[in-house]
Write a structure and sequence with these properties.
The chain is globular. It is built from two helices and 36 strands. Strands 13, 15, 16, 17, 18, 20, 25, 26, 27 and 29 form a ten-stranded mixed β-sheet that branches. A seven-stranded antiparallel β-sheet has the order 14-19-28-21-22-23-24, with no helix packed on it. It is mainly beta and 541 residues long. The protein starts with 18 loop residues before the first strand and ends with a strand.
Length: 541
């Protein structure tokens, strides 16, 4: 276990007209973090098998349609597109003729959708372009000048709409069982997103004081002062959502070793409460409940079709028999009136795609309130899954990369039952679709930490707050203007993953700094002085 530390990047201060590009070269330089596949295979780190012509890059996205009726790849954006200012999407694509079966027209569709509605296709707008086989080609989709198709004939022109936040790519149409493989590279949108959903506004609380944690030091059983094993079956003898496991309090299913907690889902015959099941796992309830703050869980996820690990929260007031806070006398309302916050869910049949979601009386079960991203090493490396819970919104990230914000325009008991205490749950469920080859798999948790607003805030330093950074976006040089008493302050530029890129010292009240060496993308510029700091987001174009 590494020593406890306060995260370096507290995105808490002023963000000056924060903007975000939408691009991906699949070499690690993109801003798209939520690639996912529906009814097809997707690999965003595939070695380019055709390094020829206009594309000699090393890594591409591989799209494999093995006959899925609605095969596609897609990604969501944190805020909506404004097609009145940027309306063209482009990419490179290679489709080998040897991968194609059937007699479908060789074509590529780009569809714009609104991921916040249940039937996302009902308001979509689509452009279709012809493919040339066995060579790399660049294809553009211009939603101002190209012919487009609106699924709903009553929808307006795409450039007059602001509800699109999903891009979907589909090769050789849908409603067929034919196969096709495609390689995609250098996706680019010619506009930018106004990053209005990022929590780093001047009015947001700064959650920088650690109030509770479990670092999982030691060995053996988990700390019963911090966690409660929820094992009691609901009425009917099985867990919700068709789950087929028993949850137990045995060290077979939860134990601490080498600075981490292992939550183990196992295939084994186990009888409890008069019910015999073929799988066991664990469901932990935290013995802390709180309102507002930041939760960070650093974990490696289990794997296997049919596994369903989750890091989530429920209202302390839920009337759920056998839940810790119900046993303490706090249960007053049922689900979903208590509210549910899914910080991370992962389904083994969609390996490496993680999702965050909200369940409220206004939308629950198959909730429309969700977003996610693809993490290529979700089950092989540690990643930090986080929630920032503000009085008016929920912000979800993985390793500091934002993928979803829940911020209803109207907050009431139906949309926002989140002004009361919630507690943390960790579990891995087993679904009926579990693969026959499954034996066991662990969710390995390095730490769970809860932060709230401290008594002192970095925003209280007036001099740091008065720093001006312009122009933003930055082409080559950026000008920094500071208060004279800050001369000598150090500025450090970080990537969104927290990696230091460069630093400089401000030797005058107004000084220009050369950032021409930076690649295009979003960076964090942090100033630190006498223990206080101020953080800015900058866009390099």
């Amino acid at each position: 276990m590494k020593k406890l530390f306060i995260p370096l990047l507290i995105l808490c201060s002023l963000f000056l007209n924060a903007q975000e590009t939408v691009e991906d070269d699949f070499e690690g330089n993109g801003t798209i973090t939520s690639w996912a596949g529906d009814d097809c295979g997707i690999d965003i780190e595939f070695s380019n098998p055709f390094q020829t012509g206009i594309n000699t890059s090393n890594t591409v996205l591989k799209y494999t349609d093995t006959g899925g009726s609605y095969a596609n790849v897609r990604f969501d954006t944190p805020t909506n597109f404004d097609l009145s200012t940027g309306h063209t999407f482009s990419l490179k694509i290679y489709v080998p003729s040897s991968s194609i079966s059937g007699n479908e027209t060789n074509q590529l569709s780009l569809k714009l959708q609104n991921s916040n509605i249940g039937a996302v296709w009902e308001t979509q707008s689509e452009i279709i372009k012809t493919l040339v086989l066995d060579q790399w080609q660049t294809i553009t989709f211009d939603f101002e000048n190209d012919n487009y198709l609106n699924y709903n004939s009553n929808s307006g022109p795409p450039i007059a709409r602001t509800d699109f936040n999903r891009v979907l790519l589909q090769v050789n149409d849908e409603d067929n069982s034919n196969t096709v493989t495609a390689y995609i590279d250098d996706f680019l949108y010619d506009g930018v997103l106004e990053d209005t959903s990022d929590p780093g506004s001047g009015d947001d609380p700064v959650y920088d004081e650690l109030i509770w944690s479990d670092e999982f030091d030691g060995s053996g059983a988990i700390d019963s002062d911090k966690w409660f094993h929820q094992t009691q079956l609901p009425s009917g003898g099985s867990w919700y959502n068709g789950e087929i496991q028993h949850y137990t309090d045995r060290t077979d299913n939860t134990y601490v070793s080498n600075g981490a907690m292992h939550l183990v889902a196992k295939k084994e015959t186990f009888t409890d409460q008069g019910q015999t099941k073929q799988y066991t796992s664990a469901r932990l309830n935290s013995k802390i409940a709180f309102t507002y703050g930041k939760v960070e869980v650093r974990a490696i996820l289990p794997t296997g079709v049919g596994t369903w690990p989750a890091i989530w929260m429920l209202g302390k007031n839920i009337t759920e028999t056998g839940a810790y806070w119900q046993t303490q006398g706090y249960g007053t309302v049922s689900w979903p009136a208590c509210g549910e916050i899914d910080i991370m869910e992962h389904w083994g049949n969609n390996q490496n795609f993680v999702q965050s979601a909200m369940h409220t009386p206004s939308s629950h079960g198959g909730t429309i309130n969700h977003g996610g991203q693809t993490i290529s090493t979700a089950s092989t490396a540690y990643h930090v899954y986080s929630l920032e819970w503000y009085p008016n919104k929920m912000v979800f990230k993985v390793d500091g990369v934002h993928h979803y914000t829940y911020q209803p325009e109207v907050r009431n008991a139906s949309t926002w039952p989140f002004d009361a205490d919630q507690y943390i749950l960790l579990n891995t469920a087993i679904q009926p679709s579990i693969t026959a080859a499954f034996t066991e798999s662990d969710m390995i948790v390095d730490y769970v930490r809860v932060y709230q607003e401290g008594t002192a805030s970095v925003k209280e330093d007036a001099s740091l707050d008065a720093i001006k950074v312009y122009p933003n976006p930055v082409v080559n040089n950026v000008t920094i203007q500071i208060h004279p008493n800050l001369i000598g302050v150090k500025g450090t530029v970080y990537s969104l993953l927290g990696e230091k890129v460069t630093s400089f010292v401000q030797n005058a009240s107004t000084e220009e700094h050369d950032l021409s060496s930076l690649n295009k993308g979003i960076y964090i510029l942090k100033f630190t002085s006498k223990g206080a700091s101020s953080t800015y987001k900058i866009l390099k174009i």
